[in-house]
Write a structure and sequence with these properties.
Order of helices and strands: HHHHEEEHEHEHHHHHHHH
Radius of gyration: 26 Å
Mean pLDDT: 80
Number of strands: 5
Low-confidence stretches: 1-24
Largest sheet: 5 strands, mixed
Number of helices: 14
Distance between the termini: 57 Å
Helix content: 55-70%
Strand order of the largest sheet: 1-2-3-4-5
Strand content: 5-15%
C-alpha cells in the first residue's frame, strides 16, 4: 500500500526538489538554517578552529549577531554568519564570521575579498559606536576543484623586505571540506553536523553523494524537525535521483528514518502545490486586469489616469499596455 502511495507522489516530489536545487543560494540557505542553531555552530567552530585559538575564547558567552559585515561590493561573492564571544578572562570580544563562498570557480583574489570583509566589518563597528573587536574569518569551501590556502602576500611576487611591509598582514581559517576524510567528519561529536557537512561536501559530486544518502540520514538522527527538514530537502535536491531510485532508496531505509523522510517530502510537495495554486491565481488575476485595461483603451472611453484609478493600478501600467498596441 505504501509503495503505491510513494509512486503516486514521487514525480511531484522530484520536480519540486529539482526546482529548489536550481536556486543559486541553496547552499547559503542550508548553512544559515543549521548554523542558526547555536549548539551546531559551537560544535562547528570547535571542529575547525586551531586549538591555540580555541584556548583563547570563552564559548560560554557565544551568541549570534544579526549583523553582516559584507559590503555592497562583496554581496555577489560571499555572505556571512556572525557570532561573538568573549576572550578568556573577559579581556575583550571576538567576532567569528563564517564566510559562505558564492562563486562556482576558484578565485585567486579571494584573499583580497577577505581583507575587504575584515576592514568593512571594523569600519561598521566604528560607525555603530563600538570599540573595534577582532574578526576571525572562516572560509568554508566545498567545491569540486582543488583550492589551496593563499594569503594576500602570495599575490605579490618577489617583493623586497622594504616593500613587503606595505602588504596588509592577516590570516583566515580555510575549512576545505574536500580535504577532510569522511571518517574524520563522521567522527564528530555532533552527528547532525557531521551529516550536514557530508551533504555539503558531496553536493557537487552527484555520483558519490547518492550512495551516501542513507548514511547521511542515519547520522542526522533525532534533531529539531526544522533542521531535519532542511537537511533532507538539501540532500535530495542535490542528488538528482530518478523517481525509481528515490523509491528504492526510501524503501531501504530503517522504518523511523523512512517515515521522517516521507513526512518531510509530503510537506514540501504540499507546499509546492499550494505555491503553484497561488501563482496560478495571481497570474489569472493579472491577465484579467490586463484584458480589462486593454478593452477600456480600445473603447477610448477613459484616460489613462481614470483607468488606473478605477482598477487600482499605476498609470505607468496602463501606459505600458497602451504602448503595446
Amino acid at each position: 500500500m505504501m509503495q503505491v502511495a510513494w509512486n503516486g507522489r514521487v514525480g511531484a516530489q522530484i520536480l519540486y526538489l529539482c526546482l529548489m536545487g536550481e536556486h543559486t543560494s541553496k547552499h547559503d540557505t542550508f548553512l544559515r538554517s543549521i548554523m542558526g542553531n547555536q549548539q551546531i555552530a559551537l560544535d562547528y567552530f570547535r571542529s575547525c578552529l586551531p586549538e591555540q585559538v580555541l584556548e583563547k575564547l570563552d564559548f560560554s558567552t557565544l551568541r549570534q549577531l544579526p549583523d553582516t559585515y559584507v559590503s555592497k561590493e562583496l554581496q555577489k561573492s560571499i555572505s556571512d554568519i556572525v557570532y561573538a564571544c568573549q576572550r578568556v578572562g573577559g579581556s575583550g570580544e571576538v567576532k567569528i564570521s563564517l564566510l559562505i563562498e558564492h562563486k562556482s570557480y576558484l578565485d585567486k583574489y579571494t584573499p583580497i575579498q577577505i581583507g575587504s570583509y575584515i576592514f568593512s566589518g571594523l569600519l561598521k563597528q566604528i560607525a555603530e559606536g563600538e570599540k573595534p573587536s577582532l574578526i576571525i574569518p572562516i572560509l568554508l569551501y566545498h567545491g569540486k576543484a582543488r583550492w589551496e590556502y593563499k594569503t594576500l602576500s602570495s599575490l605579490f611576487q618577489e617583493l623586497e623586505p622594504e616593500l613587503s611591509r606595505f602588504v596588509p598582514d592577516y590570516q583566515y581559517v580555510f575549512n576545505n571540506l574536500g580535504e577532510i576524510p569522511d571518517e574524520q567528519i563522521q567522527a564528530l561529536h555532533n552527528k547532525f553536523l557531521a551529516a550536514s557537512l557530508l551533504a555539503m561536501k558531496y553536493s557537487v559530486l552527484k555520483d558519490r553523494l547518492n550512495p551516501l544518502i542513507p548514511t547521511i540520514l542515519k547520522l542526522a538522527g533525532e534533531i529539531d524537525q526544522n533542521l531535519q527538514t532542511s537537511l533532507i530537502v538539501y540532500t535530495f535536491a542535490n542528488s538528482e535521483l530518478s523517481e525509481q531510485q528515490i523509491v528504492e532508496l526510501i524503501t531501504s531505509l530503517p522504518t523511523q528514518i523512512k517515515e521522517t523522510v516521507m513526512s518531510t517530502l509530503d510537506i514540501f510537495v504540499e507546499k509546492g502545490r499550494k505555491e503553484g495554486e497561488l501563482k496560478g491565481k495571481i497570474e489569472g488575476q493579472q491577465e484579467k486586469t490586463e484584458n480589462t485595461v486593454r478593452n477600456l483603451i480600445k473603447q477610448s472611453l477613459l484616460t489613462d489616469e481614470q483607468i488606473a484609478s478605477a482598477l487600482e493600478v499605476t498609470i505607468n501600467y496602463v501606459a505600458d499596455i497602451r504602448n503595446k498596441f
